[in-house]
Winged helix DNA-binding domain-containing protein
Amino acid sequence: MSSPRPRFGDDRRRARIGRRHLLVPACRAGSAEEVADAVVALHATDPATVYLSVCARLAKPTADEVDRALYEDVTLVKLLSMRRTLFAVTTEFAPYVGSSTARVIAARERAQLVKHLRENIEEGAPWDEDRLAAAERAALEALAVRGEATTAELNKDVPALRETLLTSPDKPYAARQSVGSRVLRLLAADGHIRRARPRGSWTSSMFPWAAVAPLPEPPVRESKAEVARRWLDSFGPGTETDLKWWTGWSLGDTRKALADAGAVDVELDCGPGRALPGQLEEEAPPAEPWAALLPGLDPTTMGWRQRDWYLSPEHVPALFDRAGNAGPTVWWNGRVVGAWAQRADGEVVWRLLADVGREAVAAVGAEAERLTAWIGDVRVTPRFRAPLERELAK
């Protein structure tokens, strides 16, 4: 008769993410790199998310600290990786992300772009793999001369990049874009260029490109095991379904990576789960109440596919858009309990969706004041807007 799986209940999971994700005040970090490692990878599709996610977890929040890591020391880099999403990860972890997920995505992006160039270019010479490779070389040569350059600037330097591609032809949402915008995104996916400091505030998407030397990457299987191990360390215990969704891997690859990472079986309140052996022996310190105002697409909100243990299903329609993107959330002791927004005059407003008591209300109010203090005159509108955030922002 086999022994029962060790149990790891929801209360214990919620307490663990407060500490492991640096949301308990006593656990807050001193650097952006510490934050990125604590949550494995920072969502970066919306430029503001990286700043808001990091500063929610810093003992001394400031946008300058995130600027330093992204653009001065370049110890955080952005990669198109898990689930074909842009993430910011530490340079130490980046080779594993590249080998385990980013390379496959880059190959798919290249094949798709070649197909679109063959079928949907509006004018100019025919495109094939050779012409695309020549355009990439010319773009890199022009970037080497400039040092940093926007897509528009490189389009001026390389005539082929100015040609127009029609996306989704014969659809109501058909649009035209320069070949350059797609080619440069592909070069970034392949690790040849990176996004440099934006021209504008830290909420801006008007960034120039800068050349980088591609990093050597470990073997794929080793890399997948490392990604799985880090995810379990930060988000575990969790389920196969959670990791499969978070990475975008197949079920077979997910199971192999969990085995290679040394994962063990546990019983969660929702059913079978996986954990690292050390997590079963962790001694939880006395619970410290904590509140957090996390941005849209924050890695904690988006860390699992199965979310009922920290997010009431009835609240999902108010807090997520129709594509499944999380808006700004209010947390109390490991649960999502509401939403927040910034109004045009800079005021940070919030609404609770559950009765969590006076202590929670006071703690959330203190976090709103903390956010207002460091954000200053900057105005933040999430790229993906949830219904309740839209309502609060009016």
Notes: Residues 94-211 form a domain with the Arc Repressor Mutant, subunit A fold (CATH 1.10.10). The radius of gyration is 22 Å.
